[in-house]
Design a protein that fits this description.
Blueprint (H helix, E strand, L loop, with lengths): L1 H30 L8 E5 L5 H10 L6 H8 L8 E5 L5 H10 L6 E4 L5 H10 L20 E4 L6 H20 L11 H14 L6 H14 L6 H9 L44 H8 L8 E4 L5 E4 L2 H17 L1
Antiparallel strand pairs: 1-2, 3-4, 5-6
Amino acid sequence: MKQFFFGFLSLILLSGVAVAAIGGWGAHAYLSAGPLPQKRLVLIERGQGVSAIAETLVQEGVIYNAMLFKVAARFEDSLKAGEYEFDAHISMAGVLDKLEDGEVFDRKITLIEGLTSYQMVLRLNERDDFAGPLITAIPPEGSLLPDTYQFVTGETRQDKIDQMQSAMIKAVNELWETRQANLPFKTKKEALILASIIEKETSVVDERERVAGVFVNRLRKGMLLQTDPTVIYAITKGRIQEEGKGPLGRRLLRKDLKFDSPYNTYKYAGLPPAPIANPGRASIAAALNPESHDYIFFVANGTGGHAFSKTLKEHNASVRKWRQIRSQK
């Protein structure tokens, strides 16, 4: 009996040593340099569980042991999908930290406010890190929300078009609920049209609501909007030039103001039939919540902003001042 007891005790001790040895090996493998020979991008797809993630990492050569990864992952918070850039010989601990923190590779495209749909498509087509064919059909003007969009390997340009269109619908629907009462337009499309004009008229953040107020005042009075960007759009249909000489490749001329198009607000009253660009959220918000004032004119002031006037006499004086500044430049 005594001999059996010592044998059993020896077995327990040996088991403990084995467990300790295995634990030591696991800790070493978890913290040591991994097998990845050089930096690599790896896509962890949405919906993958821990087992599928472990297998992906083994197949991509990022980690040695899928089982150890699965065991270690039990002690982490949820692992996030996305495209990750793993450094050469990153440890399993480092891999799990990235996946837990959602430290995805910063693959993105920025489409600024005021671009036409044609320009947005050009920028998407210029990127060679999208999958699939180039975009050939230009989306409707005003249907794409300008923003910075992230994407991963395998996404197509059309995926981004779809995302931008969904984002625009969502933004307009949200902002429409905040609109002032008694605006001189009734539909979301009209709000987008006005927002696109505001976007093209000023890039000064603090001016958007004031510019919106000028156009709202003119609409209420039945005055022509007389805004140059609508003439430019009438001539170019959004296919503007970007060679540093303005959207027409030259200065807008007086004769251009007679160009016959429903977009030309020097010839036709009210809003154009459709947006002339893709406005951002701020300009949409300004169109729906214009500043209340008596201004009905504005012109560039030479400092990047505009001079606002209540009477034609004041406006003409501002125009003369602007022409003088421009001639000196």
